[in-house]
């Protein structure tokens, strides 16, 4: 996609967002309440499902079993979408696990709601739909996850490696087992995501051989991933997107409840922490931009200082992506001028995978150096759909390890 076309797409989506006065429907709140106790079952088993309206696809909202970071069973929601047109490609219809980018922490922001005009998403919800529609146009079925705690009870474990990987892999299993979806139980699988979704896609690709070895994963598209929390804690602090760092701290607190993250916060820090729990993406950006975490901690030190010390250094290490080998081919893309997630940490991720023997194609996203992270989204959408079509046709390409 050209820079001009990318910018045009972004402006079109932003304009459309301003015209949306509110949600077009009320989300099925009861659907998002899991049964208590959770039913026994395997990872990816469908707990419940309900049809939803989606133009050009047969869509089903699902709740399925997955695992949190500690390995305990949890309910996760999402959407399975099957294109209305028959599959015309080779073999069986592929399923692509779509890992959404940052939707927010409030339950109203869950992608399974905003995709179908429910909830209360913002412009981010429209970008999610662009990504899903690009995959559907290729004839792929799409299995979209909300991740842990987004829609369902508890805080969303934003940017937490293991829980996002589990949710992304288990939504494919759920799609394969969904009655009446007509999807193959052992057909080809792809993974795709950008930004937060890029991190989830990356984590799922490298955890799949251990967590879901039966899935026939042909390739993973990883766009602008947050791979190293130690880098992000410093780069986001005090900037336009510090709200995302707040999201990550809420997620870490949920995933590691004994870590004492809240003990670091002063009264204002606790207020901001609680406020972040209910916000969608743009609301968080505008509410918290340019705040300094040193103003929110009990001793005036920035969050990055704490993350370099016990016990938080072990948590950061546990969430580092790149220490495991994806067996599937990977297309990894990032914009050199990205203003949210540093380019070099993504390039290092590619090098780490190459060193372990993964076939990696690393490309720069060619977008304007202004709001480069946002502008990368529409480009990533096209690249992911086109590359996965090549992968499913048996043409993933040789990769370019050693050249970046």
TrEMBL record:
SUPFAM superfamilies: alpha/beta-Hydrolases. This is Secretory lipase. One of its GO terms (biological process) is lipid catabolic process. It comes from the Bacteria. Keywords: Signal. GO terms for molecular function: triacylglycerol lipase activity. InterPro entries: AB_hydrolase_fold, Lipase_secreted. Residues 1-27 form the signal peptide.
């Amino acid at each position: 996609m050209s820079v001009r076309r990318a910018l045009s797409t972004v402006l079109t989506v932003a304009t459309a967002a301003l015209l949306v006065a509110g949600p077009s429907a009320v989300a099925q709140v009861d659907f998002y309440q899991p049964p208590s106790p959770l039913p026994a079952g395997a990872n990816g088993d469908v707990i419940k499902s309900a049809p939803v309206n989606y133009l050009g696809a047969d869509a089903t909202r699902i709740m399925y079993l997955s695992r949190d970071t500690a390995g305990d069973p949890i309910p996760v929601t999402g959407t399975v979408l099957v294109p209305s047109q028959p599959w015309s490609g080779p073999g069986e219809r592929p399923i692509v696990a779509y890992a959404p980018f940052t939707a927010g922490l409030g339950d109203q922001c869950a992608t399974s709601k905003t995709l179908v005009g429910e909830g209360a998403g913002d412009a981010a919800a429209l970008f999610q739909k662009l990504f899903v529609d690009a995959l559907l146009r290729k004839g792929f079925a799409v299995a979209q996850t909300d991740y842990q705690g987004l829609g369902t009870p508890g805080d969303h474990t934003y940017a937490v490696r293991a829980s996002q990987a589990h949710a992304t892999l288990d939504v494919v299993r759920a799609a394969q087992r969904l009655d009446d979806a007509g999807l193959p139980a052992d057909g080809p699988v792809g993974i795709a995501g950008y930004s937060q979704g890029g991190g989830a896609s990356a984590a799922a690709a490298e955890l799949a051989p251990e967590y879901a070895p039966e899935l026939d994963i042909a390739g993973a598209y990883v766009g602008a991933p947050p791979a190293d929390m130690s880098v992000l804690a410093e780069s986001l602090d005090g900037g336009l997107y510090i709200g995302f760092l707040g999201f990550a701290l809420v997620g870490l607190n949920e995933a590691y409840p004994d870590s004492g993250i809240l003990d670091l916060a002063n009264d204002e820090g606790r207020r901001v922490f609680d406020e972040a729990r209910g916000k969608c993406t743009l609301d968080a950006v505008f509410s918290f931009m340019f705040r300094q975490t040193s103003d929110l901690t009990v001793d005036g030190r920035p969050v990055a200082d704490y993350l370099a010390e016990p016990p938080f250094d072990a948590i950061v290490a546990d969430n580092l992506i790149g220490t495991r080998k994806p067996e599937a081919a990977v297309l990894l893309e990032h914009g050199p001028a990205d203003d949210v997630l540093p380019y070099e940490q993504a390039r290092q991720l590619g090098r780490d995978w190459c060193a372990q023997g993964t076939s990696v194609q690393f490309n720069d996203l060619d977008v304007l150096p202004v709001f480069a992270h946002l502008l990368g989204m529409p480009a990533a959408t096209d690249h992911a759909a086109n590359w996965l079509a090549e992968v499913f046709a048996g043409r993933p390409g040789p990769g370019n390890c050693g050249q970046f």
